[in-house]
Structures are given as C-alpha cells and as structure tokens.
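Standup notes, protein team

Yesterday: finished cleaning the Handelsmanbacteria sp. set.
Today: PDZ domain-containing protein structure.
Blockers: none.

Input for PDZ domain-containing protein:
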Amino acid sequence: MTLLLLAALAQEDDLEAKFTRSLGKVAAAVAEASAPSVVAIEVDRDPRSDGDGFNPNQGAAPDYYRRPEGLVSGAIVGADGWILTSYFNVSGEIRGIKVRQDSKTWPAKLVGYDKPKDIALLKIEAEGLPVLRTAVMEEIKTGRTVFVMGRSPDASRATITDGIVSAVHRFKESAIQVDAEMNFGSTGGPCLDAQGRLVGIAAHINPKSSWGQSGGVGFVTRIDAIEGVLEKLKKGEKIEKAKTPWIGILGADSEDPEGVRVQEVLSGSPAEAAKLEADDVIVEVDGKKVATLAELQQTVQGRKVDQDVTLTIVRKGKEQKVKVTLGENPNE
C-alpha cells in the first residue's frame, strides 16, 4: 500500500514538473513574439498629483500604495503609432509623455481616455510598428492561462507574469479578473492568451484600490470593450467616470433579521461617520426593505453622492434609524 501511495505521489510530482516546464516554454514563446509590441512609458508629472496616498483599510505601509516615479507600460495597437495604456498611468498633472522601447524614444500625445474602463490612448509619430493580434474573447473563460507583459523598470527588457482567469465579468462587464501578478510598472501593459493574442490591458491598479498590487487579484480591461470606444478615443473623446455612491461596509445577507449584516465598517467611510457598527443589520433604506446585499447595493446606486439616506438597522435586537451621507466609492 505504501509503495502504491509513493508511486502515485511520484506520478503527481512528475505531472506537476511537466506542467511547469510546459508553462515555462509557452511563456518564453509568448514573451519573445510579443515583446516588440510592448512599450515603456515615461511620464513627467508632479508625483503628488492623483495617486499619492494609500488605502487605510489595508494596514500596510503607505509607500506600498504610492504611485512610483518609474516607467509604466503600454501596448501598440496601431502600426501608425497608436498606444494603449492605463488611464491611471497618464492621469494627474502631466508635463510630458515619452514612449520608449530599447534605444528608441518617441514623444507622445494623450489623445483620449475612458476613465470607467481605466484606459488611455496615446499617439506617437511612427510607421510600421508591430501590432498584437486580438484574442477571441469567447474563448477566454475562467481557468484559462493568461500572461501579463510590461516594460518596467528597464525599457530595454520586457517582463512577463503568468496566471489564470479568475472571473470574466468585472467592472460592469468591461474587465476580467486574473491572478497574474500586476504592479504599478506593468499596469497598462497587454494581457495575452497562450497564443500571444491581446486579451486586454492591465488596469484598475491605483493607490485607492482595496486589492493593492501583486496580490493575486488583478483586472484587465477586455479588448472587446476597448474596441467599442477606440474610434471615439482616436477622435479625442475623453469619457469621464460617473460618481458611484457608497456607504462603506463589507456585508452579507442576513436571515434573522432579514437584511444585510454589517461585517466590517471601512475606515474613513460614510458608514464610519454615521457610527454604524459591525453586526448591525440594515433592513431598510428610506423606508424600503432590503433583504439582500445585492438589493442594498442596487438601492444605494440609485441614489447620488452626497445625498442623505436613512437606514433602518437592527442593533442588539432593537430597531433604530441612522442617517448616512453617501460618499463616492473610491474603488470605482
């Protein structure tokens, strides 16, 4: 019996080793083929503008959440000089942008952006640039292997990390979630499938995001969502982000009493200002019953930032009213 068990474990180890070797070969092939379409972006900005600070809910050192001053990444999507990157990379007080790759440097212009999707379109004066093929998004399903590439901190060398697709519908259907490591340097770079085809742009990493960086939770704005606005961006359109109202709790459905049980009150949130407490159960918003977390979210999103709402809560068995002034969700 022991020998059979050892043999089975040895076989599992062998399969894992074969998988690791196979993944390494695929990653190397994808990196070699795709690197010419990955660029470094140098942004001359006031480092304190739009990005300095940290999320107090994380308990990590503030420097971990500050936008670094180094290179960020982008992907060539037009042979005549069109570059996609994350909007966050080029937000703030910008004095100039340069696109770099190996020994080449081009001045770049920010042409358009879409804040909700966290993408921006740059233009450089160049011709004959290598463009990545586009993935078939119907093939990108949960569990598929993907790769995130960048060119930071060294513009002469592309970087690559691997992971799987964790979810395919995030940020109102415009993004997928992946567990490939992403950071402030690789954000804006391309996410690729195992054939080196463009799945989307690494995005939604900023100092206010609760998931931070390199934590196994990353988001990629889908290429099909980008294609839907690309022509508008080429014409200079700047799509602003609508403010999303927010209470600032982590919650779960409650059956007794029926409603939403507060699991955690986030630091600096409207809920904290209103003195909500963990284990409170929210049962009504402005007199309308809410039976689930989804119903609460839908009700709140139907309101406006800075609007006052009255929550009916049950605290230690007693019902009471609490007024909350809705804030702006920092993660959307």
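Follow-up from PR in the comments: The chain has five helices and 21 strands.
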